[in-house]
């Protein structure tokens, strides 16, 4: 069986160019340090491939195994890891300084749902017209949001003014 090394993967059979290697046979038993030709002969005898498992050790560790099966298992493991991976999204909640209590409650329920899903929330407070003269109302509102979410979220960025809007980012605990 003559396999050449694939790009990015482990070196296989003739691709291994080290004169001596640490060999692990097909049963998983440590054979010890052997010549590369002896290891290749054992692999051919077993009808399997010689695969470099740990290239950085001294001497490199090689194992006799079915390379196709090894690649398939690695592929399955990578797919499983990708499946479990989750990206954290930033959801935005927009408010106005003079928001009514019921509207505020609805926004807070949405925010709680976002935190339960593991997402971050960006609270944007928009000032229009003469509301810019009363920025303290916006600061009070964002402080109220901060207090109402202390058990389930932490403040990632404090409220700051960006042009005509005040922004604060919260992350789930």
User: What gap, in angstroms, lies between the N and C termini?
Assistant: 54 Å
Largest sheet: 4 strands, mixed
**CATH C-level category of the largest domain:** Alpha Beta
* Total count of strands: 8
Strand order of the largest sheet: 2-1-4-3
CATH architectural arrangement of the largest domain = 2-Layer Sandwich
Portion of residues within helices: 25-40%
- Taking all residues together, what is the mean pLDDT? 88
Structural class: alpha/beta
Strand fraction: 25-35%
Find the CATH superfamily of the largest domain: Translation initiation factor 3 (IF-3), C-terminal domain
Integer count of domains: 2
Order of helices and strands: EEHEEHEHEHEE
Rg calculated over all Cα atoms = 30 Å
Stretches where pLDDT is under 50 for at least 5 consecutive residues are none
Total DSSP helices: 4
In the CATH hierarchy, the third-tier topology of the largest domain is known as: Translation Initiation Factor IF3
Shape: rod-shaped
Structure in words:
The chain has a four-stranded mixed sheet. Strands 5-6-8-7 form a four-stranded mixed sheet, covered by helices on one side. The protein has 173 residues and is of the alpha/beta class. The two termini are 54 Å apart. It is rod-shaped and about 85 Å long. A hairpin with a 6-residue loop joins strand 3 and strand 4 (61-65). 34% of the residues lie in helices and 31% in strands. The chain has four helices and eight strands. IF-3 binds to the 30S ribosomal subunit and shifts the equilibrium between 70S ribosomes and their 50S and 30S subunits in favor of the free subunits, thus enhancing the availability of 30S subunits on which protein synthesis initiation begins. GO terms for molecular function: ribosome binding; translation initiation factor activity. Pfam families: IF3_C (PF00707), IF3_N (PF05198).
